């Protein structure tokens, strides 16, 4: 198996925090195959508890969890184990949240869907090492959609306020928000 060729080091502990149970199970299994000793949590509370009791060498934390923000788990990890390598995952890839994640101490930031190899590469990348450019960069339509989503979230999901800030008709915005994201 080529996937087990990664040099994890002595401490192979990995904390996975995500509220999508199916994704969490698949990722845990894939990371165990790559040599990690995995612990999982489905919430901010669970992630913070594990981070406090047994701070891992590595962590993959979803940004949006049902009970709060995954960055709360990252803060605990940074307090308890400053050398922990943390990758923040999210289905809502936005520059503002990426900057916040890195400022708080995340090693990297990946948009879902990210596969196990991308996650391992992010966890094990050297300090200051730049990731390779994406194989398939986002289309202009996708970048526009991401921007609209970011502004929508910053306006606390208020359609009228978002439309005003984007200088767009409210109904046009509602149609855009009702559609799936472009590729």
TrEMBL record:
Domain Response regulatory: 13-127
Keyword Transit peptide set for record: no
Residues modified to 4-aspartylphosphate: 62
An example molecular function term from Gene Ontology annotations: DNA binding
Cross-referenced SUPFAM superfamilies: CheY-like
Keyword Nucleotidyltransferase assigned: no
Keywords, ordered alphabetically: Activator, DNA-binding, Phosphoprotein, Transcription, Transcription regulation, Two-component regulatory system
Any one Gene Ontology BP term: phosphorelay signal transduction system
Role according to the record: Member of the two-component regulatory system RegB/RegA. Involved in transactivating anaerobic expression of the photosynthetic apparatus. It is a transcriptional regulator that is responsible for activating expression of the puf, puh, and puc operons in response to a decrease in oxygen tension.
UniProt-listed PANTHER family: PROTEIN PILG (PTHR44591:SF14), STRESS RESPONSE REGULATOR PROTEIN 1 (PTHR44591)
Protein name stated in the entry: Photosynthetic apparatus regulatory protein RegA
Organism of this sequence: Poseidonocella pacifica
